[in-house]
Amino acid sequence: MIQAPREIVTPRPKMSLTIPKGMAPVEFFNSPNNLKNLAEENGLFRTPENLLMYRKLIGHSIEFDTSVILDTSKRILDPLGRPVRRDQMSRQQKKVWNKITRILFEYMQESYPDPAEHLILCGEASLDATWPLNKPGVPSIRMIHNHFMVFPMADLKQAKLADPNDPNLTDSGHHSLFLRHLSGIYHDFLEILDLQILLPISSEESSLKLTGYPQGLPCWEVKGGIEKLKDQYFWYEYEQVLLGFLDFYRTFFSLVSTGDSKVPTNANFPQQVIDVLLDSSKFQRIARDLREQVIQDPQFANEIRWRPAYKQLLYRDDRGRLIVTISQNSVGNAITELLGIVVKREEDEAAYAAAEPALITRLLEARERLINAKLGEAIAAPLWPKGEFVPRS
Predict the structure, then answer these.
(1) What is the pLDDT of residues 321-331, one digit of tens each?
(2) DSSP state of 225
(3) Are 315 and 149 in contact (CB under 8 A)?
(4) Residue 322 domain boundaries
(5) Could you give phi then psi for residue 151, rounded to 5 degrees?
(6) Which of 22, 52, 125, 288 meets the CB 3.0–4.6 Å disulfide criterion with 311?
């Protein structure tokens, strides 16, 4: 078996939305109106905190694929004023967010117990939170989301090998920046975190045998496994990983932007920023090189996300261990690509229709656990009006 990233083809249905005349598709899909449609047509569950669980119509997997988003579109009209990271959520929102994550991950673990048969993961991310303002179709949704999915390993093994230089696998070129040039410094900086449940694990040991990913990212094993997701201290440590990442990102891109070496305002670990990052000649040199590239290359400059955008994954490895990792989130890059999986979505109504009843049944089963936990209320979408799948007429 060749160890390499895979490109998997996932069927999708034809989009039924009507895009207003004179409006580009990317503009409509990023509009509040699309979010309203998403809830009405594909919504599964909503909490009083406005955490919305929905079916990913154009998703990554037809085995199991759902997302939870903090839908603040009606309460906060300014897209730039909406929470896009867990550190911007209220205490109550985070408490329920963590419970939903645990319950859905437990469902995936129980439904797919064998790591040799299925890859299970969830990826928390800022949803287009810092899309470059000069990029066409600036997203207006801008909310934190968590994406839960399952891939049959047989499908991944049979999938064709992906191009290792695929822009999605390389974060539009930024992936190599963090991993080839800054990987050692990145690891050193995050090692200062005082973690008790999350145990640092080498990149080689944490990577999937099939793809060899994630490559070079700092990873942590969850000591105690899935039971630790019930421990509030696990979620405290999970957030510490994000806060460390934010300090690293802000320090680096501030240096690229201004050329000035300074500790970011409200840094979480200011002394470590000075000792590990700003005192590193390599860190300074790479920032200067990138600064020059931004000045000289307008196309590359247009891809930069100057504000922190992240992807934080919780996945089960080949040995059944739960692993946490975190990376930047660049334009055109998706959750699965951190694990070496490129998803190519192709319109195929027949193939999707064949898989849809079982897919939705599993989503409704998972939703039932949230209902039983009394976290919110079910949504009666057209295809599941009374909690059961109803085929399109």
Answers:
(1) 999 999 887 64
(2) G
(3) no
(4) 6-168+198-226+310-378
(5) -125, 125
(6) 125
